[in-house]
Amino acid sequence: MKLGKLLSALLFISCVSAHAQTLDAVDRGWLRDNPSNGQVESFASAQNYLVGRGMISSTPTGVVRGEYRNFFIFDLTAYAGQSFSSATLSLYNPKFGDPGTTASNPYSYGGFAQTGTNALPYETYQLHDVSTAPSAFVGATAGRAGFDDLGDGAVLGSYNASLSDNGSFINITLNGAGLSALNASVGQLFVLGGRITTIAGDTGSQTVFGFTNDNNLANTRLNLVTAVPEPETFAMLLAGLTLLGFQQRRRSQKLLAV
Prior knowledge:
Elements: H1 3-16, E1 18-24, E2 27-34, E3 39-41, E4 51-59, E5 62-75, E6 84-93, E7 113-114, E8 122-129, H2 134-138, H3 143-152, E9 155-162, E10 168-173, H4 176-184, E11 189-196, E12 206-208, E13 220-227, H5 231-257
Antiparallel strand pairs: 1-13, 2-3, 2-5, 4-5, 4-12, 5-11, 6-10, 6-13, 7-12, 8-9, 8-11
């Protein structure tokens, strides 16, 4: 291979070399719209990330259900000056038999559950851009505006979850808008909001990520890829440039000697 072509190959490698890393969420939770009192409710200490239409309470006259939307907060302060080329949100979706899903609990179906009549065998989970301050979610003060914000911003990714996803991680790749939002948040906290878009009718549960009560933040993580030049490649490139300069100088000297 000629030296020039070799240098071109090294330059290409230096540009596409990537570094993968995993970042756990620093906080997570849900906000729910309670139809029995018309209020949006949340709890600062809860890290359950249930999403969809789920049970709020059970009364002698029936079960009260409302819509849950979830959020995830990631700390990107250590990544100032970096740029991510791809990112995937990984969320554990419990199965029956995981903590909290006991046979004595008639509502413990696992992470994905459909208890009403639903024409679809899946639920579409969408990620959204969030503009509400992270502190409002952490302190459970986001209210109605925060609840709306979790589901009406730009769509950053989506996934069709089904019963087969119970007991496994659901991986959602951020789209172009998601990567832009992520990179715009480098150096600060980054918030992702989520909602189910396939809720239909007014009876039965349609949920994903139910019974996520273990408070293990490693169950909610971002898998990040940063495009970075490898030091070894730069060293090879520098050596190649030095050799190319030496050859060019020798060629010039030979031409002058003719």
